[in-house]
Design brief:
Largest sheet: 7 strands, mixed
Number of strands: 11
Distance between the termini: 56 Å
Oligomer: single chain
């Protein structure tokens, strides 16, 4: 009897296709939820820091960013990576980077929302706070496109060092129109601005740059035309319409605005050699680029290039804080959502004491990060105030160092809450995890931030007083914080080997300012748990999930858990 005959004669010929099991005890995608309203810490911060007027629009934006269709754009933008065409099919140099439509939609929304420029286009009180909240929501969907958005935002104060250039370029930089066409700026309705600072031999040490700038005519100095020759090892977002570039002019390191197209409509010789293959931030086209006599105009004074970009760097570093805080929120949101659905050993995960300890600890980390980030947004809104300006100068570096450094471990720990499926490439965690180290390195690594903190304290000693004045606002609110602050003040009296100890000092500063903000503004269940877990014993140097006894983990979890909208 042959095989078909055997099957035909079987009592149950389809038995070989029987179901092996019924799937159950499974999680679901976190989609179609209110990303703004269900983030209580964010709503509280927006109102507290001066942007209550934006609550309604942020609510609408949170529904968009939490929707399944919009979240899918982030997936697609990272699945279909940028591609470089150096020449067209006829052999003409074009240096064109092609992106997936999902990337363009994310860029369009970001610019329509004003994330690229709203504090300058509409400088009302709380403008930086509202803008930070929007960037925080948008970054949870996809981080890579935030690079050109951030650089455009940061370019405005730099350009204002040369009013004539600002007058020409600002109207289209501030425009709420996204125009990705590869055409001269005169033909476009909106512009984006990039940066080209880093070179092979120097990295963060930009004073070692070798790119040269030669006067293109008799005029020199701010606003004058130069031709630049050199090599830039990292140029993020090479499809921006112009770039702020550091180069050595006859009078020293200077800043230049270099467009992709010359005023006569010809292509400026910024030649993209290759796109970088990065472990994260994949949707963003980072490139290696050469300038072969590229036309640019000097921004700020000759020889004062670093001074010119200081405000720009402060803005990009702040956005690193926003981006890392957003990464923490998305990671803990996914972990909390999963642990409300998944059971093990007879109990739902978020009801198990040890898992509660881990989840609550991840929540506390994010609460501290968000409180500090939004406080710095308020400081940026109030730079005319001496105290706020000092905080922005000093604490932005502290926050950028601490928050961005804490995010990779936070992402990993949240991923571990998911278990084995968390490491699968068809889920969100690999992208979150690969993205997590980026902000810690870009715009100045950890050591650079710590050295900048020391430099600010040495150059303007008064900022130390401003810092402790900010901590004093929480005095008496928590005994552990009071002891921590007193010990930190004593630390500042010992200046021996301060550079060697810089990371330890900045660690302590970060925890102090986070705790002070939470003691003042957060519910007691948050503030007390943060201080008990971070300011006592081994402090911040510990694994997640080691909260002390007495913490109301269930309340922390309930406060932070997002839930899909009914229907």
């Amino acid at each position: 009897m042959n095989a078909p005959e055997m099957l035909a004669s079987a009592a149950n010929p389809m038995a070989c296709l029987a179901e092996t099991h019924e799937p159950f005890n499974l999680g679901s995608e976190l989609v179609d939820y209110d990303m703004y309203r269900q983030d209580r810490a964010l709503v509280e911060a927006v109102h507290r820091e001066g942007a209550a007027w934006a609550d309604e629009s942020l609510g609408r934006f949170g529904l968009l960013t939490g929707s399944a269709d919009y979240l899918e754009l982030g997936v697609l933008a990272n699945k279909h990576l940028p591609e470089l065409d150096t020449h067209d099919r006829f052999g003409r140099r074009i240096d064109l980077v092609r992106f997936h439509p999902a990337y363009h939609q994310l860029m369009r929304t970001a610019i329509e929302q004003g994330i690229h420029a709203s504090p300058y286009a509409d400088p009302r009180p709380g403008a930086h706070v509202a803008r930070a909240a929007r960037m925080y929501l948008q970054s949870q969907v996809e981080a890579g496109h935030g690079c050109p958005v951030t650089m455009t935002f940061a370019a405005v104060p730099a350009l204002r060092n040369t009013p004539a250039l600002a007058a020409l370029w600002e109207p289209k930089i501030l425009s709420p129109v996204y125009d990705p066409r590869n055409v001269p700026d005169a033909q476009k309705a909106g512009l984006t601005i990039g940066m080209a600072m880093t070179e092979k031999q120097g990295g963060s040490d930009v004073r070692s740059n070798t790119t040269r700038a030669y006067p293109a005519g008799a005029a020199t100095g701010p606003g004058a035309a130069y031709e630049l020759v050199g090599h830039k090892y990292f140029v993020s977002a090479p499809m921006c319409d112009a770039f702020l570039v550091l180069a050595q002019a006859p009078g020293g390191l200077s800043c230049f605005l270099v467009p992709r197209w010359r005023p006569d409509g010809s292509k400026n010789p910024l030649q993209v050699l290759r796109l970088k293959r990065k472990m994260g931030n994949a949707s963003n086209a980072s490139s290696e680029t050469e300038l072969r006599g590229a036309l640019g105009w000097m921004v700020g004074a000759e020889g004062r290039g670093v001074r010119t970009i200081i405000d720009m760097v402060a803005s990009t570093r702040f956005d690193c804080m926003v981006g890392s805080t957003a990464g923490q929120r998305m990671a803990v949101s996914l972990a909390l959502h999963h642990c409300t659905q998944r059971s093990a050993f007879g109990r739902v995960l978020n009801q198990q004491p040890l898992m509660q300890n881990v989840l609550a600890d991840l929540v506390l980390e994010h609460e501290g990060s968000l409180a500090l980030t939004m406080r710095m947004a308020r400081a940026m809104d109030q730079r005319a105030d001496e105290h706020e300006d000092a905080l922005a100068r000093l604490v932005t570096a502290v926050g950028k160092y601490w928050i961005c450094k804490r995010t990779p471990q936070h992402a990993y720990e949240a991923m571990e809450c998911i278990g084995g499926s968390g490491v699968m490439e068809d889920g969100p965690f690999p992208r979150l995890y690969r993205e997590a180290p980026v902000n810690a390195i870009w715009e100045g690594s950890g050591n650079v931030q710590c050295l900048d903190v020391l430099r600010a304290m040495q150059k303007t000693p008064a900022v130390v007083g401003n810092f402790f004045a900010e901590l004093a606002k929480a005095r008496g609110g928590n005994a552990a914080l009071d002891r921590w602050t007193a010990a930190l003040q004593a630390e500042f009296k010992d200046l021996a080997d301060l550079e060697y100890r810089a990371r330890d000092v900045v660690d302590r500063m970060a925890l102090a300012i986070q705790a002070a903000l939470l003691v003042q503004h957060a519910p007691a269940v948050v503030a007390d748990a943060f201080c008990a877990s971070r300011l006592q014993g081994v402090g911040g140097h510990r694994q997640y999930g080691t909260l002390p006894r007495g913490v109301d983990c269930a309340a922390l979890i309930e406060r932070a858990t997002p839930r899909r909208q009914a229907g």
